[in-house]
Predict the 3D structure of the following.
Amino acid sequence: MASAGSSTAPAVAHRVAPLRAGKGTSFVLRRLHSLSGIVPVGAFLFEHILISNSTAISGPDAYARQVSFLANLPLVFFLELFGIWLPIAFHALYGFYIWYRGDGNVIAYPWTGNWMYTAQRWTGGIAFAYIIWHTWTMRFTGVDLHAYPNASFGKVQSEVLQTPLFLFYVAGLIAASWHFAYGIWLFCAKWGIVSGDKARKRFLIVCVAFFFVLTGAGLASLTAFRSRPQQPIEPGTAVMNIKQSSERR
Ligand code: HEM
């Protein structure tokens, strides 16, 4: 990691200290934190933005089918618990601890890696605020989308059609996408997967391109929600009932 607080911080961009053994529990936790950012948290973000939410571009029915597919995965609650919620909670809480422990000193070492180091912490913090709020409103309050997947498009619309909330979605999307994309670069540097200044510089370009792909796909989905009239949300409405019964057949 680009150790901003260390007096031996390298004066060259793209240099990242590998995770070293011999630091006891904290070494294991740092490795787990690093790995959890890729699998399962990063893998989930990839699926969520590039696959599931992109189906919204094809309209409410396609989106409902995707939500229904996810909701009907076997043992879905445990998949969510162990595959998403607990790993994100661990990665985020340990991430805040790393942030609190290190002194992100952007003034003493004004090189690119140092700004990236700071951005990695702030984008994690913004993504965290967004994830808490998004999970609470989409999964734990309002109409239950696992029981009524046809309400999904309308439920998302009820938020993104409000401009302040839409801007919050955009901020969360950009923060999470940057954090993940640059996180892939950090991960590969720390685990020795990409080594050498030249290779790291080239790989940084690939990761920045990936950031634009994620952000672009997310913005395309958000535009799809905003460009259609508000769809029904309440399970009792006629349209919902027709769709619900045709889905059961
Ligand atoms: C959107 C969900 C998230 C994803 C996909 C994600 C992914 C990643 C990845 C891939 C890394 C690089 C791993 C490494 O450093 O070796 C990373 C690093 C990091 N993440 Fe996250 N993360 C997420 C959320 C968060 C949150 C909410 C926080 C809370 C602040 C956070 C804090 C950090 C920190 C501090 C690092 C840098 C660790 C270091 O420099 O050693 N992350 N993340």
User: Anything to note?
Assistant: Residues 197-226 form the longest helix (30 residues). The two ends are 54 Å apart (CA to CA). Residues 108 and 249 are 66 Å apart (CA to CA). The pocket of protoporphyrin IX containing FE is lined by residues 1, 34, 37-38, 41-42, 45, 91-92, 95-96, 98-99, 120-121, 124-125, 127-128, 176, 179-180, 183-184, 186-187, 190 (CB under 6 Å).
